[in-house]
Structure prediction request, 986 residues.
Amino acid sequence: MEEQILQIIKDEDSKNPLTDEEIASRLQVFREDVTTVRRKHHIPDSRKRRKPVIFEDMKRILTESPDLSDRGLTRMLEDAGYRIGKYAAGKLREELLELWTPSVACREKENASPAPVYAKHAEYAEHTESGAEDDRANVFSAFVGFDGSMKTQITRAQAAVLYPPRGLHCLIYGPSGVGKSFLAELMHEYACGSENFGKDAPYFEFNCADYADNPQLLLAQLFGYSKGAFTGAADNKKGVVELCNGGILFLDEVHRLLPEGQEILFYLMDKGRFRRLGEVDTQRESHVMVIAATTENPQSSLLLTFRRRIPMVIEIPSLKDRPAGEKLQFILRFFQRESRRLGKQIKIRQQALWCLLGGDCPGNVGQLKSDIQVCCAKAFLEGRARKDGRITVSFPSLTENLRKGYVPDRITKEIKELCPDDCYVFPDDSGEDAGKSGAETFLEGFNIYESLEEKYDQLLRDGLRERDIEVQLTDEIESRFQRHIHEFQKSGIREDEIASIVGDDILSMTRDICDLARKRLPGLEEQVVFPLAIHLNMAMERMRSHGRMVYPGMENIRQQSYEDYEAACYAVDEIQKKYYLTLPEEEKAFLAMYFRKFRKKDMAQEGRIAVLVVSHGPVASAMAQVANAIMGTEHAVGVDMNLWDTPAQMAEKTVDMARRVNQGKGCIVLADMGSLLNVGQKIREETGMRVRVLSRTDTMMVVEAVRKTMWTDESLNEIADELDKIKLTGTREQAEARKKAILCLCITGQGAAVKLKEHLTERLKSNLSGTVIVTRGYIEDSSIERIIANTEKEYEILAIVGTINPESGTYPFISVSRIYSPEGIGELRGILKRSAMFEENQLSEVISPDHIYIRTEAEFKDQIIDEAVGHMEEEGLVRQEFLLSVYKREGMMTTRLSQGIAIPHGDPGLVTKPVISVTKLDKPVLWDGVNTVDVIFILGIQEDSRKYFEQLYQIISDESMVSAIRASRTREEIWNLLCKNTKSVN
Prediction:
């Protein structure tokens, strides 16, 4: 195949090179395979292969007719044999004219006298004649649009830097997230080595918002202070201005300075002189170029006297005001970054690209980057679920805001020409952040503030109170800290890498904080320094961008980790004095969490009993996948044996997988039949593991095994015995004869338990559905085990709520303090829903495997509806007119629900026998012109069929169940999920 691809490219028409898609179509192979071969041999894509050829013909045409219109140029190129549109020709013309001037060619041809040549900066043409100048000018190529819509701004930036003798003071303004700080950094890089600045010209970034209301602190930080200038000033200290002599001082958020603060800078900008705080007679000199940045209108936010001192003003427009081509550059750059991070190629569907290009980004480039990270994460998970390893970003992968804002009519011809097909990015492509260190990659994923702020805002939009939000986010923060610290320990990042990312100042400040904390916490480990440095760097960035410091669990930290919190308060107070910083109160809570984690040595995760599912044929992996999806974990592991494997080969595979999943607590092997039941002894002999093997496994047994190993502290034998009991004695059928109950426990059974019952009855009205709430007291019997056992004789216990944990391990326990929070009620509500879902399901009466469809190819919703309703009609379940009634309902209102599910339905009067069909698609289809779906339930139900819809809705409202349906490979698996353990309706 590789030779064929290379031969096709070699023989192609150089004026119209073949795209990867066209080559793949000829050879009947995947487009990705063609792209991989082409890149392996360093062959550019079709556009780049054609560019040298078409440029030569365009030069010839434009030399003869410099004023030719784009339409005329397109016509002449077509006459020359090119297949090209007017827009593409116009873009190529713009690109060519950046490199070549027709008039120069004409003069050479006609031997005319030369006309003046204008350099990029006419007033400083001598600078651009040197190769070094050209090399330095290339630094601006990292700024998207440097040779397009931002060309004027880049020219101004270059001129400001080169203006003698020390550059022009400059003001950059524009909305948040457009790249003001980045442009300032590029200006400094451009300045280094120029005549105005030395090779190692210093650069300091100073965020004015930190000192907006404190001119005295501003003075001390900017200009330094002399010994004795104020209480605590034990030594002379240089300020930022003095350290920045001969370099560039970047004043971010300059509009946050009060008028007094702006006036403080006048003398420095005019004369290059200043005094340290506390000095009277001494005059010091520092010549700096000031670059100020603001998100506000300079006319209204800055003093006229301040604006007069800044002659060069550069405006950076918002992302929506940039050309679509430049927005595409941003999009591909961010996808490239994610591709390198994942180490995989990413395929971006055409519709997803159109949506990203045509959608609004109020947060500009920063929000676009965040949106792309989110959609890549979703696509990655979808690839994991499919088990094909491919990352495909499609329309459903995009964020909800992007999908909601997608309007097909807004997709212009320009966008369609920019993205005529799907797009691929590869991890080995060169990009602006190639060669990024491990520390930088780790740092990008370490920002806890962003995700917390997003979740905080979402909960506010959902109408939750501040107190309820606090409860919900506290556990989120805890788990994120645990995860990030665990990842950091595995990363092996060196100190020099951390210093290169966060800077020596942050690293030094972090060490000071840890040294101060050790005065109160002698056991604080040295390992805390590096992750804490990364956290503090993120905190500083957050403060500079005025992001909220969302930490709703401060009170919990104060109460649960009093020593750590006190140490954090002490360290923060001392650091603020030493470094002239003002850290938010919430930061103390974050520091306390780090201290707690690195003092208690609780980083290691406790092992659990492994669950291994083995079977003949491709059954085990499917059962494990469904069980994991239902339980929200990846604990169960499936091993599929080939039907032709010998018993020895099967045993070898099972032993090998048992070694891999072993966490030190033993393993439960759930097998189907035959020789697999004899593998337990083999595992024990070769690995030394404790193991129990159970036979005749089904999906619900795997679910129960995962539940017990993840949620309880039962031993290996206890879990295995209970699973065996379920299988052999039909415990489930016996349990159905008992009423379901929530057991409320307190000391007497009359006090807190009764109050709990009243609280739960009120809060769970819509979820109890026959479940009773039983109160019991510890004083009823000397053994809590007997109290529970006696209750089990009469009731099927779903969960225990109480003042003291009975530590039975068999049932989920929710404490009194937790049950009065939304999170605790939510947990109990979930237990009730799952119980109702599996034990009282009646859907088997209306759903049969014959009406479940798994489609790998379906382009339109009409195909899906026509096929499913056609089968209903053939079996006499609906009348002929039912199909038309379905389409009428679709025309009235969309039947799409959240999570990519649709429930089309027709007139109940045209249904002769209730039926529900289920269609699962491998590829989503457009449903209502805007949104896509991949799971469709067509409802043929009558007016008295409300119970079926309620049970179906209960299932599809559960995200884990929907995920399990999507992960299913056969119609039987889907039917089991929807209808297993059903009750008949009398």
Observations:
- Residues 466-491 form the longest helix (26 residues).
- The longest strand covers residues 915-926.
- The domain at 843-979 is CATH 3.40.930.10 (Mannitol-specific EII; Chain A).
